[in-house]
Amino acid sequence: MELRTQLAIVAAVAVAWSAGRFVRVRSVLDPSHVAERLSLAALEARVARSPADTLSTRVLLRRYFDQGMPRLVVDSARRAPAAVQRDGAVCLVVARANEALGDVRAAQAVVNGAMSRCSVLPESLAEGAGCDFRTVAELSMELVALDRMVEWNITPQSDPARASLAHELSTRPVRISARAVER
Questions:
Q1: Which residue from 11, 43, 88, 180 could staple onto 130, CB 3.0 to 4.6 Å apart?
Q2: CA-CA distances (angstroms) from residue 9 to 2, 3, 21, 25?
Q3: Cα–Cα–Cα angle for 117, 120, 125, rounded to 5 degrees
Q4: Do 119 and 166 form a contact (C-beta atoms < 8 A)?
């Protein structure tokens, strides 16, 4: 009985070991997280090698914007393929860069276009097109702020305090109160 048990254990280990040789290991990390870990030079090289790589382009444009290079964001986005330019997350960064450059109307046009495209996408395709819930919420807040700046005829350069106020008002929480309506 003991010999049978030992042989069964050895056979089970052999089967597990041989099966492990045929199993593929796939990355647990999301591809965008992999791109976020790359250096700026590696990201630029990656986007240069494959310009249609939307995830890498998103990360690269965000990195440029965070480092205070809005002109580079706008120029890089213009050189990207049309499919990448239409991505909701790319549009958000480009709109913020245009706003930082003082071109509020161009930023408003970019956000309006992105909101229009995102609104017609089915939910199953939205995330792949950069139109996930978070991005759409950020786009709508950006649009409200840009609409106020256009209405007030200001830019972040001409009146930074009011531009900041426009952004603050766009993120202000909505308060709903229930009042009895008399009939």
A1: 88
A2: 11, 10, 19, 25
A3: 90
A4: no
